[in-house]
Design brief:
about 280 residues, Nuclear Transport Factor 2, Chain: A, Lipocalin, six-stranded mixed sheet, 4 helices, 17 strands, globular, NTF2-like_dom_sf, Steroid_delta5-4_isomerase, DUF4440
Length: about 280
């Protein structure tokens, strides 16, 4: 992605250098080079393994876990691929892809990963990484089935200019179409399954000319929507929406970690959204 502050050449160089972080990490891991790996994690980094439901915080603890793996007699190797790199700012990037582990003669296991890397005086470092099993849906419609509860009409509980939302499946069910309307604005969102990245993604277009892209991740019972948006004036906004499903007829949504051109913004209060009763004919 090209940022307003970057020339195309700069953006290409940054994309390449970010990809090199993962390549260098895999090479260092396969060489059991713990010293090199330690320099590639930020001091307060975090690692989340969704399959094991484990969160590890801090470089020291992450490296302690890696040292345990290195002490095992089995020959353990990493391999993988990068699906996408998105420059959030000149010093922050988001990476998604797949990572596999082969252990001696066992069949390799494959996980999907998403990472945030930050650039500082020591170069690019991993700030956070999440790993989750690779889903194997039979179709795009099957991949979106966990979001079927969103289908219908909704309205948020705010008193000023409430937003009405309508969600319905596209023909064939490969996409969900979500339209949001208030007196002041209107937006259209397309939610679909990216078979290459193996994740749910969405594309949003707003009436003021702004537009954005998000990746949807599962975090326990919540959905995390990591977004990058081009505002109407050309600035870049990013943040994470947290959707918490209370029940089939109510959910809350909150925007966290919002930045505009790298500048942190004040967090927003959660908004409650309720299903509107069906209109009888």
């Amino acid at each position: 992605m090209l940022l307003g502050m970057c020339t195309p050449t700069q953006a290409a160089e940054e994309d390449s250098s970010v990809r090199d972080v993962i390549k260098e990490y895999v090479a260092a891991f396969n060489a059991k080079d713990a010293d090199k790996l330690a320099t590639m994690w930020a001091e307060d980094a975090s690692h989340v393994d969704h399959e094991l439901m484990q969160t590890t915080t801090g470089r020291d603890q992450i490296m302690a876990d890696i040292e345990v793996v290195f002490s095992e007699p089995d020959d353990i190797k990493l391999f993988g691929s990068i699906a996408s790199v998105r420059m959030i700012t000149g010093e922050v990037a988001s990476i998604t892809g797949e990572v596999g582990v082969s252990i001696s003669d066992q069949d390799p296991s494959l996980n999907r990963f998403s990472a945030i890397v930050v650039k500082n005086d020591d170069g690019w470092q991993i700030d956070s990484m999440e790993e989750m099993p690779v889903p194997q849906p039979l179709s795009s419609a099957a991949a979106l089935a966990p979001l079927d509860w969103l289908i219908g009409d909704w309205q948020d509980a705010t008193e000023e200019d409430p937003v009405h939302t309508h969600v319905h499946p596209a023909v064939g069910g490969a996409f969900l179409l979500r339209s949001c309307t208030s007196e002041a604005a209107q937006s259209t969102q397309i939610i679909g399954w990216d078979a290459r990245a193996r994740e749910i993604q969405s594309w949003t277009f707003n009436s003021d000319g702004s537009h954005g892209h998000a990746t949807w991740a599962q975090n326990g019972g919540d959905r995390l929507l990591r977004t990058v948006q081009t505002l109407a004036d050309g600035r870049i906004a990013s943040g994470t929406y947290v959707i918490h499903r209370e029940n089939d007829d109510e959910f809350t949504i909150k925007l966290m970690g919002r930045e505009i051109d790298g500048q942190p913004q004040l967090p927003t209060e959660p908004v409650t959204v309720r299903r509107m009763p069906a209109v009888s004919n």
